[in-house]
DNA sequence: TTGCCAATCCGAAACGCTTCGGGCAAGCCT
DNA sequence: AGGCTTGCCCGAAGCGTTTCGGATTGGCAA
């Protein structure tokens, strides 16, 4: 068996109490004692017994993630990337990362509850937040730290890591506006996702700034999938009234669908239609070979480490300001935007596929 | 806070000891008392405090999986399926499932060590075993229970869940032999994987039983990928000497590659070449739309629950015999096998793509 | 009657840690 | 000099469970 506090106390001549306090860096232990204790601990190859610590203190050193049930979850390659990213960062910080994959009939909130009082997890990473997310309310009511990937409101009072998605929407729209586009379609994600609505607001704001009234029929909500991208494009392009001359894709999968639909319609990018996309650089070989597309870019992969750090910060009671991070995105020009062709400036008859 | 044993003891008028024993189904508690205690526990919504239980019993109730670093790992959709399966089963058994995604420069064996004494994990699931797997030796030397997905030898002395892969190889080969094929190619996986070699042995045995000498040039080892399937097929089909009339695919991805290569060569299935496959029903939409293929079938998805149960059994010191399970597979006929055409019965000149 | 056994039960001691409430000097102030 | 603060330390009481070693019955054989 491993050495215990008692062993260290014995070899250093201190009490168990003081050894514990020394190792936990309390402030009523002299620096010299702390050093002596640390040395002894190392020499004895001491490893704290997590169960004991947990039982006594309520803290466990374990953090968790409840994966939403199949279906309500992002694509597998993203899940794997996320799990890898979180796991790596947490283990770097000496925390155990437990993963609970919720089953379809399971109540996700209840799962958190069970994990808290069964295993006394110290905190949770919450992904895929929805407005008024019940998980947030529950965890706060139980006083359990959490961190959000994304956020549910502009200035929330919980730790999070997020992009400025309103700004993403604005920038994407402006990229098209600046080239003269006025009818700008937005193939967006599911409206219950917070970031989707933020981007939608950005789109509307940028349009209004440019004196264009956002047309509801030029925005399509749906899953972040290729088929949604394709179907939404077909719908927008075959509607009566003026067709969009520029399209915004919520992510690369949607962009892929857009490209498919456009080529089916015999429309070229950027000659006939301009396309911009927010690229979160999802892994997946099917996205490797995509036409170069202008837009915003912000690798999702870079959000896991900050997310993990924010959670640990929250557990350690650091001030909220340190725990709220807004990720950067870049704006990239890759030639998928051109000025709208003259024939697209005015209404033309509906296009039929 | 949640109810404790003490609360149950108070309401039932029993001692904490007896309540504990009742709930754990010890045999010196009367059936009537057990029932009473169970009712009280339910009424109070009692949940055992895992930390206390662990502290007292020396176990942590936490099991782990170290995911091999990126690259040495199966495709993402399988990883997710596995994680979901294991997580669900473990949480059903009241265990926490911690996942550590190893990074490329990390020593996987050392990681297990750190997890054991940092988190006092109770046991590990080991996937992707290789012959003489160092993880097995290490965990055994530290006395930590483990369970293998697969195995490194025929009758190992550790818990495992595996198919009879030798039999899989035999059956696949026989499906072709029975229809009259004699030159049977095997597009197999990586030779360092144990199951790959077992299937290879099965192939050889079945051939020998039928009086056919296994030709080394008719077996190709490589990653379980579409491109390996395609390239191996092209190589076998364009070699001088008699070409195979039947092909065995190690899994569906390989089969997909085989189909691609065959159609490139203008060869039809089953008229020109027969194909059989071992289908572990990997998820992934790219495999949904595959030509119907005869062969063996055994859903990988069904292995996670038994795997988890075996690990828990090992932790609870159950006899080894209960912890070694060989999964079933079925043999399915789906019309991709026919008798070899006469022109293939004898040597023909090498085929050039 | 006595002794013994099986069937039930219980008290108390762990398990290793944190933390509350103090104690004891040494140094400062007034 | 007395009283206060400050710095460092300790004993002991938990945390909720398991488990060891008895204790208490009633029944049954000797």
TrEMBL record, chains A, B:
Keywords: DNA-binding, Transcription, Transcription regulation. It holds the Pfam family Peripla_BP_3. GO terms for molecular function: DNA-binding transcription factor activity; transcription cis-regulatory region binding. InterPro entries: HTH_LacI (IPR000843), LacI/GalR-like_sensor (IPR046335), Lambda_DNA-bd_dom_sf (IPR010982), Peripla_BP_I (IPR028082). SMART domains: HTH_LACI. Residues 3-57 form the HTH lacI-type domain. It comes from the Bacteria. This is Transcriptional regulator, LacI family.
């Amino acid at each position: 068996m491993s050495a215990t506090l008692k062993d260290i106390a014995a070899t250093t001549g201190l009490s168990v109490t003081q050894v514990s306090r020394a190792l936990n860096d309390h402030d009523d232990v002299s620096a010299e004692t702390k050093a002596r204790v640390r040395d002894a601990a190392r020499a004895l190859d001491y490893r704290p017994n997590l169960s004991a610590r947990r039982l006594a203190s309520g803290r466990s050193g374990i953090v968790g993630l409840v994966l939403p049930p199949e279906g309500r979850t992002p694509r597998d390659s993203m899940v794997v990337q996320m799990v890898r990213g979180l796991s790596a960062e947490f283990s770097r910080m000496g925390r155990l990362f437990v993963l609970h994959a919720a089953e379809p009939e399971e109540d996700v909130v209840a799962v958190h509850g069970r994990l808290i009082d069964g295993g006394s997890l110290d905190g949770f990473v919450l992904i895929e937040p929805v407005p008024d997310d019940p998980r947030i309310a529950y965890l706060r009511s139980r006083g359990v730290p959490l961190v959000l990937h994304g956020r549910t409101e502009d200035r929330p009072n919980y730790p999070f890591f997020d992009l400025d998605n309103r700004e993403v929407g604005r920038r994407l729209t402006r990229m098209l506006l600046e080239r003269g586009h006025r009818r700008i379609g937005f193939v967006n994600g599911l409206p219950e996702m917070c970031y989707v609505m933020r981007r939608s607001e950005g789109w509307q704001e940028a349009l209004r700034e440019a004196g264009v009234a956002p047309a509801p029929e030029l925005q399509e909500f749906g899953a972040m999938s290729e088929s949604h991208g394709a179907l939404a494009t077909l719908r927008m392009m075959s509607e009566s009234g003026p067709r969009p001359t520029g399209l915004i894709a919520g992510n690369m999968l949607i962009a892929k669908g857009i490209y498919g639909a456009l080529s089916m319609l015999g429309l070229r990018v950027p000659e006939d239609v301009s396309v911009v996309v927010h690229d979160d650089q999802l892994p997946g070989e099917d996205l490797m070979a995509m036409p170069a597309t202008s837009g915003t870019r912000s690798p999702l992969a870079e959000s896991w480490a900050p997310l993990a750090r924010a959670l640990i910060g929250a557990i350690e009671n650091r001030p909220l300001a340190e725990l709220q991070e807004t990720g950067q995105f870049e704006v990239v020009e890759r030639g998928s935007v051109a000025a709208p062709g003259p024939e697209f400036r005015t209404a033309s008859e509906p296009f039929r596929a």
